[in-house]
Design a protein that fits this description.
The structure holds two protein chains of two kinds.
Chain A (H helix, E strand, L loop, with lengths): L1 H16 L4 E14 L4 E14 L4 E7 L4 E2 L2 H11 L7 E8 L10 E11 L2 E14 L2 E11 L18 E12 L2
Antiparallel strand pairs in A: 1-2, 1-9, 2-3, 2-4, 3-5, 5-6, 6-7, 7-8, 8-9
Chain B lengths: L1 H24 L13 E4 H10 L1 H8 L3 E14 L2 E6 L8 E5 L15 E11 L3 E8 L2
Parallel strand pairs in B: 1-2, 4-6
Antiparallel strand pairs in B: 2-3, 2-5, 3-4, 5-6
Helix pairs in contact in B: 2-3
Classes of the chains: A alpha+beta, B alpha/beta.
Chain lengths: 180, 138
């Protein structure tokens, strides 16, 4: 029993000692793009929180739905009130792992990211590739992936069905600084 | 004759309707600088409310124009615009204010440790409470 406690303490201590392998950003950029024959819709969020642990490749990203800025305020209103119900579900969260992280250099390398994306309280597995590099002290992660609107049970009224794409392209640029 | 009047009336209605629809479609974003705040409070109170009960704080603060008074812990930039981190106490979290583009030039007059008043729209709480489209008051 004593050994077990000791082992646990050791594990915890090693975990703490490796704290410098954590990188964080509170101002990451995530945007999405919907293309349809009627119109193109774009929105941008510059307050994304993302934490990467380079020791095991764990990554956690969260953002506030209401931080998405649209060109037209009416679209932003509809997005929040009708489609995303951001009062009920204020956040979107991704938790996952960067596979085979290896050594990072100043040159972009492609890495596979696997995890779970939660939007409107619905979690779906997701896999994508991203570019990752180390610039000075920061870990830079860029890429994009596709999200199916129906996966998250987002109801779009038929009157605007032609204005909004069935598949939305989500792009990200996350510049993490060392977490002290 | 009667038909002509009806025709003209219908045409006027269509043009007017189209104009109103276009105005609604192009409705401008909320102008924080010219709006009165929905709530006025200390940055510490806002933070504590989110830290103690995020769900009820969301109901109270989300999408509201909030004016907070607090001490500058850190000044920074994000995507070309200024950011001000407010933190009065020793709490882990803070209030992060993302400034509007028009406010950037005022950043040079700010110092860390200074007490200021900021007005912005609250979008929620991650590790910190986020205010966007912020303007400096005074």
């Amino acid at each position: 029993m004593k050994t077990l406690t000791l082992t646990l303490f050791m594990a915890l201590f090693i975990g703490l000692a490796h704290g410098q392998e954590k990188y964080i950003t509170k101002q990451g950029n995530i945007s999405f793009y919907s293309h349809s024959p009627v119109e193109d819709i774009e929105a941008e969020n510059n307050q994304v929180l993302s934490i990467v642990d380079t020791s095991d490749g764990e990554i956690a990203v969260s953002l506030l739905i209401q931080s998405f800025i649209f060109e037209k305020s009416l679209m932003q209103e509809h997005f929040n009130e009708n489609y995303m119900e951001s009062h009920k579900y204020p956040k979107a969260i991704f938790r996952g792992k960067i596979l085979e992280l290896g050594d990072l250099t100043e040159n972009d390398k492609t890495a596979t990211i696997q995890g779970e994306l939660t939007i409107r309280g619905i979690s779906k597995p997701i896999e994508t590739t991203a570019n990752i590099k180390k610039m000075d002290d920061s870990i830079v992660l860029t890429g994009s992936f596709l999200v199916e609107v129906k996966d998250y049970k987002i109801k779009i009224p038929s009157i605007v069905a032609n204005n909004i794409a069935k598949t939305i392209k989500v792009s990200f640029e996350l510049i993490h600084q060392p977490y002290n | 004759m009667k038909n002509k009047i009806i025709l003209v009336l219908v045409a006027v209605l269509i043009v007017l309707g189209g104009y109103i629809a276009l105005r609604m479609y192009n409705k401008p974003h909320v102008n924080v600088a010219e709006s009165d705040p929905d709530l006025v409070l200390l940055s510490q109170t806002l933070l504590e409310d989110f830290e103690s009960d995020e769900i009820s704080a969301n109901t109270k603060y989300l999408e509201q124009i909030i004016q907070v008074t607090g001490k500058i812990q850190k000044l920074g930039t994000a995507n070309g615009n200024g950011t001000i981190t407010l933190n009065n106490g020793d709490s882990m979290g803070s209030i992060i204010c993302h400034l509007s583009g028009t406010e950037n030039k005022k950043m040079v007059s700010l110092r860390e440790g200074q007490e200021i008043m900021v007005k912005g729209i609250c979008t929620g709480y991650l590790m910190d409470v986020i205010l966007i489209n912020c303007v400096l008051v005074n």
